[in-house]
Amino acid sequence: MGFLSKAAMSLVVSAAALTSVGMGTAAAEPGPDGYWGAIAVGAFSDFTSYGSAWNYPDRASAEQAALAECGYRGCEVLASWANGCGAVAMSEDKMRFHGGTGVTRPEAERAALDKLAAVKPPLPFPFTGSSSPERGVIKESVCTD
């Protein structure tokens, strides 16, 4: 294959790739409750997987899509919502995850962090260590349209 043939083939392949990437899925019509979203997390010994879905017509579809994107049997939906945002926070020790929802992204992120702080395990000995709530980090947050 000559240089011009290779160049032409490269253009055809590039155009096909751009077309398929840009296709995506058509936006679903909102359901009776509006658009739904969900975030799933799978925490395993050597990695963590996340899956997010938004703009689905119902809760079940959004959760199923988030689990499919998470991609592993051990994934679990930690947040699902209609017409708003969801977030997942991870503890500093990377052992706990909690989801939160809200009307806005900051509200959802705050809700996830607050849930994480509320379930800090008790200390093994009274009056030792810090009494400050567990700090965490937001690992995923998405909003419906």
Automatic annotation (TrEMBL):
TM spans (from-to): none
InterPro entries the UniProt entry points to: DUF4189
Entry keyword annotation includes Transcription regulation: no
Chain ranges of the DUF4189 domain: 36-117
Keywords in alphabetical order: Signal
Region ranges (Disordered): 126-145
Pfam families for the chain: DUF4189
Signal peptide coordinates: 1-28
Domain of life per record: Bacteria
Record keyword Acetylation present: no
This protein's name: DUF4189 domain-containing protein
